[in-house]
Write a structure and sequence with these properties.
3 domains; five-stranded antiparallel sheet; 8 helices; 14 strands; ATP binding
Length: about 325
């Protein structure tokens, strides 16, 4: 870390408390002048830091700038050493993750976070709309073990959806619902979308990487695009974004590495927005309708169509009837 980052790390550890310049200099073993320069640089970046003679410096409780030290302050011990890369603006964190993977060595669980995406992507080639300053957009790069089974790829998205839902529950004390396979709804509005992508050699049946991209709406923008205004939802919270990001990463780690598939699927089903409902979908180029009845151990959706069971391993479903604005 550079001087600015180590100073910010100390301020984050003592958020809301004054620390004298001399104490900072002693702790970090750098000069008072270096501390002063770092504080001014942080203020220029947008951090709210109060400076008072004889009291020192204090990172204001309301300062809500995303930062690596700020995120790491709330991470569980297992994630303290992960690489986090921040962007003010980017085309897509998933696209950038691919560029990084092709250009050099990337550690497992490297996380890319951006305040804004100009070309966010969703499933089935759709775009994912973002609005500057109103959301969190991040991608996690995973390096799975050699025995990763392609046919269980949907479970990556299932585990991701569960992690987001659990983080929202803990932070907001709300109960989200999951629309198979990758959307999170809160009070009938979509607050999160997930895109999982696999880089694999299908001949050797080896997986080099998995990228999980997640976009979460935190606030409502001043004006919504017409095509999404009826479905767009937001968490509407003043919780610090660093804390939200850390909570999301913590829950992802636990859901991906610690929780058994059985418990993940139980949670997913318990919070499902589609099970028991009539759904529309497309299979092999045909538009169909049936009743969503279950999710199997691979994360596939089982649909009953006129007494026959069909298995959906990809694609998207829409729900018949009015489910918006409902809990």
């Amino acid at each position: 870390m550079n001087t600015k980052e180590v100073v910010l790390q100390e301020l984050e550890k003592n958020r809301g408390i004054y620390i004298s310049g001399q104490e900072l200099a002693d702790r970090l073993k750098i000069s008072r002048t270096a501390i002063w320069k770092a504080i001014n640089a942080l203020k220029s970046d947008g951090f709210i830091i109060d400076s008072q003679t004889k009291r020192g410096y204090k990172l204001d409780d309301a300062s809500d700038m995303i930062s690596v030290p700020g995120i790491k302050e709330y991470l569980i011990p297992e994630l303290k050493d992960i690489d986090i890369i921040l962007y003010d603006e980017i085309d897509s964190t998933n696209t950038e993750a691919k560029r990084l993977l092709y250009s050099g060595e990337i550690k497992n669980f490297t996380c890319l976070v951006s305040d804004y995406q100009t070309s966010g992507r969703g499933r089935t080639g759709k775009s994912f709309k973002s609005y500057k300053g109103t959301g969190i957009y991040y991608s996690i790069i995973l390096k799975p073990k050699d025995n990763f089974d392609f046919s269980y790829f949907d479970l990556v998205t299932i585990r991701s959806a569960v992690s987001v839902s659990k983080a929202i529950e803990k932070l907001l004390k709300e109960s989200p619902q999951i629309k198979w396979v990758n959307d999170i709804y809160l009070k009938g509005k979509k607050v999160c979308g997930i895109l999982s992508e696999l880089d694999a050699d299908f001949e050797s049946k080896t997986v080099s990487s998995i990228i999980v991209g997640i976009g979460i709406n935190l606030k409502y923008p001043p004006k919504l695009d017409e095509e999404i205004k009826d479905i767009f939802g937001a968490l509407n919270t003043d919780i610090l974004r660093n804390k939200i990001i850390a909570s999301l990463l913590n829950e992802f780690y636990l859901s991906y590495y610690e929780k058994e598939t059985e418990s993940i699927l139980k949670y997913y089903k318990d919070h499902s927005l589609v099970l028991g409902k009539e759904v529309f979908y497309e299979l092999n180029g045909q538009k169909k309708q049936g009743k969503a009845i279950d999710i199997n151990n691979k994360g596939n959706l089982l649909v009953n169509v006129n007494g026959k069971e069909e298995i959906l391993s990809s694609g998207e479903v829409s729900i018949k009837g009015d489910f918006l604005n409902k809990k």
